[in-house]
Write a structure and sequence with these properties.
Number of helices: 3
Radius of gyration: 15 Å
Shape: globular
Strand order of the largest sheet: 2-1-5-6
Order of helices and strands: HEHEHEEEEEE
Number of domains: 1
Largest sheet: 4 strands, antiparallel
Number of strands: 8
Helix content: 10-25%
Strand content: 25-35%
Distance between the termini: 11 Å
Length: 135
Amino acid sequence: MPLFAAKEKSALEELVGRTPTGKRWVMLLTAAPTKAMSLAEVEAKRCTFGGYADVETPGTASWDAATGEAPASITNTGTITFPEWTSGADQVATYFAVREGAALVGYEKLEAAVTIGAGNKVASFAAKTLSLTIT
């Protein structure tokens, strides 16, 4: 079922917890997930280096208003920084996913893969570099 443009925007804003305001978490993934995966299957693709934790992204403080039509998209408002690498092998994050508690919301490929490890201890994403699009 195709969504009308106005509904695409409101659906994205609801999914990331912008309207109504709610808590969501961003996860870094080392491989591509699929729509059919369970939370456990997606978590198996999550970064596992020492110090890693998902980052809470509370609604309007973390996500801009959705823009565009067919497809609509939404981006992060400010910088999203993950906890510092403290131990373990280097890992390459290629995707990010958004979850609401134990419920998966959506995922996208990162604009560029990010290696996290001894040489680059922090994964940080500037404003407007994490984008979700309804497809």
